[in-house]
């Protein structure tokens, strides 16, 4: 069992958990992920690591309550325990001194870009961050992001905080500014990552995306996370989760992410009905 040592409410549907997992914390690196289960019969939930503290032996994760399993996770409190917490999984971010880099986080993607910004900056890169969400309620960690970037652009789709508009607008402005950018990371909803990759492609700037949301097993055994990258079938869990965004078959990925939408809705409705009746 893995003890939750701290819980923080970041927004109406966004929760932060610090989990006691010393063996994972000892090896964790930016870009990697964990898979947890709330209960023994619970669904496996893949989450990119938001932070790690080797001295304290803890892993920080951030979750948005979207479906049945994440809503169930959101009910846990400090002192509760998770049935399983497996990691670190996947390949870490490739860190070196690229030069000028842009790191884009959309919605929940703000959490995994935080450690990526930190290690890129420690490697000598000039890091420009862009964070955005649909509304102010879904935006979090602005101060934390300012601490690991050289400059930070903040916005919301509806204009309720920061700049109004989607993250691709400031991304294109930076690329058009005359400054040479050597690499871009973009993490968030699949549709956001797709359009970030489409935005950078004409400029020839390498763009890295993270595809952990399609995973189930997380160890390469089930094949559910297969994606087409550069015309080849890859497994997001063991070959990724980070890939070249210009090579991802986004239409195939988006269609596969919708395969279980009906079943997910049935599970959520059954869970909410059971909670209301209890």
Number of self-contained structural domains: 2
- The radius of gyration computed from the alpha-carbon positions, rounded to a whole number of angstroms, is 18 Å
Cα end-to-end separation: 26 Å
How many β-strand runs?
17
What do the pLDDT scores average to? Answer: 95
Order of helices and strands: EEHEEEEHEEEHEHEEHEHEEEHEHH
Percent in strands: 25-35%
- Fold-level CATH name of the largest domain: Rossmann fold
Main sheet makeup:
7 strands, mixed
What would CATH call the class of the largest domain? Alpha Beta
SS content category: alpha/beta
Q: Please, how many helices?
A: 9
Stretches where pLDDT falls below 50 for ≥5 residues? Answer: none
- Second rung of CATH, namely the architecture of the largest domain: 3-Layer(aba) Sandwich
Shape type: globular
Compact summary:
The chain is 29% helix and 31% strand. With 278 residues, the chain is α/β, with parallel strands linked by helices.
Explain how this protein is built.
This protein has about 280 residues and is of the alpha/beta class. The protein has nine helices and 17 strands. The chain folds into two domains: about 1-90, Translation factors (Elongation Factor Tu (Ef-tu), domain 3), CATH 2.40.30.10; about 95-210, Nucleotide-binding domain of ferredoxin-NADP reductase (FNR) module (Rossmann fold). It has a seven-stranded mixed sheet with strand order 12-11-10-9-13-14-17, with helices on both faces. The protein has a five-stranded antiparallel sheet with strand order 5-6-2-1-7. Helix 3 links the parallel strand 9 and strand 10. It is globular, with a radius of gyration of 18 Å. The model has no long low-confidence stretch (mean pLDDT about 95).
